[in-house]
UniProtKB/TrEMBL annotation:
<feature type="transmembrane region" description="Helical">
    <location>
        <begin position="130"/>
        <end position="155"/>
    </location>
</feature>
<feature type="transmembrane region" description="Helical">
    <location>
        <begin position="99"/>
        <end position="118"/>
    </location>
</feature>
<keyword id="KW-1133">Transmembrane helix</keyword>
<feature type="transmembrane region" description="Helical">
    <location>
        <begin position="205"/>
        <end position="223"/>
    </location>
</feature>
<dbReference type="InterPro" id="IPR003280">
    <property type="entry name" value="2pore_dom_K_chnl"/>
</dbReference>
<dbReference type="InterPro" id="IPR005408">
    <property type="entry name" value="2pore_dom_K_chnl_TWIK"/>
</dbReference>
<feature type="transmembrane region" description="Helical">
    <location>
        <begin position="175"/>
        <end position="198"/>
    </location>
</feature>
<keyword id="KW-0812">Transmembrane</keyword>
<keyword id="KW-0630">Potassium</keyword>
<protein>
    <recommendedName>
        <fullName>Potassium channel subfamily K member</fullName>
    </recommendedName>
</protein>
<keyword id="KW-0633">Potassium transport</keyword>
<dbReference type="Pfam" id="PF07885">
    <property type="entry name" value="Ion_trans_2"/>
</dbReference>
<keyword id="KW-0631">Potassium channel</keyword>
<comment type="similarity">
    <text>Belongs to the two pore domain potassium channel (TC 1.A.1.8) family.</text>
</comment>
<keyword id="KW-0406">Ion transport</keyword>
<feature type="domain" description="Potassium channel">
    <location>
        <begin position="93"/>
        <end position="149"/>
    </location>
</feature>
<dbReference type="GO" id="GO:0034220">
    <property type="term" value="P:monoatomic ion transmembrane transport"/>
</dbReference>
Length: 314
């Protein structure tokens, strides 16, 4: 009986984590079901239209084409397109590995966006991407941590000013500050670039432009939309668009991370995280507090007490 109660007591702290994982799996299943219902019929319709177009083309030009020649040509073109190489369009898209495109590709590696519009063809390029990403990702994370440490205190000043002048509680002021920053980032880095993209690139709707901006800043980067790939685009606009997208990725991701960090510091979010924390009498946070108190106590000791005298050598 005691062993059963001991087992139940040992498993009880893990019950909230089990509920959290179950809820996450249910959310995944729900998202998959909704996407299957929404995207399944259009995909089948597009496949049927493609087959009809292919059958019409083969019936019209059957005498001029050897059997399966068109399928082989399409397979070669699609394989090249998967690596970002295409013979379609004008001369502005001919150099897939020009400097702006290469910079955008390296930025997509270090920001884990990965649009998928380009991919290395050579074995040396693939090996370099592995080494470059393995070394560059930690450096990027260190840079983001340093900028976060520098910018978060600056972003907290407006919230403190509002809390003092409006007589708000700290929790309410923090929520108001995080909400304001979230709306500001959404307006500057999602809505405004989407309007610019919608106006400059006429082959996408406003919803598609918003979808691209959000997928970029959330590092999803599905790659189905990419600015500068429209046909008939002037080479100067193409290069400017690539550099603008590079700066947008770096600044937008930093703003998004700062916003997420500010929301994570909210008392309401911290209380929710604390609910799923282990109920052990001495968890990691308590241990960290004890270590911090020990370090503080050692730092306040006089040098003679902090560093005991060594025994004289014989």
């Amino acid at each position: 009986m005691d062993s059963g109660q001991h087992t139940m007591g040992a498993l009880r702290p893990w019950a909230p984590y089990g509920l959290l994982v179950t809820a996450h799996l249910l959310a995944l299943g729900l998202g998959a079901a909704v996407l299957q219902a929404l995207e399944g019929p259009p995909a089948l319709q597009l496949q049927a239209n493609l087959r009809a177009e292919l059958a019409t083309f083969q019936a019209e030009y059957r005498a001029c084409l050897p059997p399966r020649a068109l399928e082989e040509l399409l397979g070669t073109a699609l394989a090249a397109q998967a690596h970002g190489v295409s013979s379609l369009g004008n001369g502005s898209q001919a150099g897939n590995w020009d400097l702006p495109s290469a910079l955008l590709f390296t930025a997509s590696l270090l920001t884990t966006t990965g649009y998928g519009h380009m991919a290395p063809l050579s074995a040396g390029g693939k090996a370099f991407c592995v080494v470059y990403t393995a070394l560059g990702l930690p450096a990027s994370l260190a840079l983001v941590a340093a900028l976060r440490h520098c910018l978060l205190p600056l972003l907290s000043h407006p919230g403190a000013w509002v809390a003092i002048h409006w007589q708000l509680t700290p929790a309410t002021a923090a929520l108001l500050q995080a909400s304001g920053l979230g709306l500001l980032v959404a307006g500057i880095f999602v809505l405004l670039p989407a309007l610019v993209l919608w106006g400059l690139q006429g082959d996408c709707s406003l919803l598609e432009a918003i979808y691209f901006c959000f997928s970029s800043l959330s590092t999803i980067g599905l790659g189905d939309l990419l600015p500068g790939r429209a046909h008939g685009l002037h080479p100067v606009l193409y290069y400017l668009g690539q550099f603008a997208l590079l700066g947008y990725l770096l600044l937008g991701l930093l703003a998004m991370l700062l916003t997420v960090e500010m929301f994570l510091e909210l008392p309401q979010v911290r209380a929710m995280v604390k609910f799923f924390r282990s109920r052990d009498p001495l968890n990691a946070e308590d241990e960290g507090d004890i270590l911090g108190q020990d370090e503080l106590a050692l730092s306040t000791l006089p040098p003679s007490a902090a560093a005991p005298e060594r025994a004289p050598a014989c």
